[in-house]
Amino acid sequence: MAAPLSAVRRLASLAIALTTLFVFGADETGQAAPRFRAKTTTGDQFNNASVKGKVVLFEFWTTWCQYCEAEAELVDDMAKEFADKGLIVLAVDVLEPDQKVKKYLAEHPRSVPIVLTKDTNLAAMYNAQSYPIYVVIDRDGNIAGEQRGAAGERALRRLLSRAGIEAKQESEE
User: Fold this and answer.
1) 67 Cβ neighbours under 8 A, 6+ residues apart
2) Residues 58, 122, 141, 18: is their CA dihedral positive or negative?
3) 55-63 mean pLDDT
4) How far apart are CA 36 and CA 132, in angstroms?
5) What is the pLDDT of residues 104-146, one digit of tens each?
6) Residue 58 pLDDT more than 50?
7) pTM assigned to the model
């Protein structure tokens, strides 16, 4: 009887672990964004009140993530493209030493504001454990969408459009 009971316990533990993963990794689209604070490496401060009326794209990344490196220029370009439409991009490096990030950025410059883990509570709030992760907050302060993993240009544009930011149609140019 001990073997079947042991198997049942293992199955129950596995079920609890999987449920926990789904709960904490669940898509929270449509819900109010959690209260956050973030300070960039240049000293600029952001929080829910300071971004009210803007669309915010959080990009969670690390220096060792090849997908993050591959999409960095795309994210920087989109930040420039949509800055006049109220887009703020905050690139949040997750759990790496300051010096490592600074050295990386010297070799791979970014044009978007960089936030280090010690200067924000964002990584924990969005369960940033695999990279890249993109979260978009709409002008009303609600989570408009989330992308876990490399997105590519089409997916990032679709994500931004869920928050009301869209490129000009070709007929408008």
Assistant:
1) 131, 132, 149, 150
2) positive
3) 98
4) 19
5) 999 999 999 999 999 999 999 999 999 999 999 999 999 999 9
6) yes
7) 0.80
Position of tokens 């420039």? 80
- Run of H or E residues at 74: helix 66-82
Contact residues for 42 (Cβ-Cβ < 8 A; gap 6+): 113
- 3-state secondary structure at position 62: coil
171-to-158, 165, 166, 167, 168 alpha-carbon distances in Å: 19, 17, 14, 11, 8
d(CA 133, CA 129): 9
Gap between the Cα atoms of 160 and 72, Å rounded: 16
% the chain with pLDDT above 90: 77
Domain 27-172 falls under CATH 3.40.30.10: yes
Residue 170 amino acid letter:
E
Both structure tokens of 117: 């883990």
CA angle at 23 for the pair 155 and 131, rounded to the nearest 5°: 40
More confident residue, 160 or 172: 160
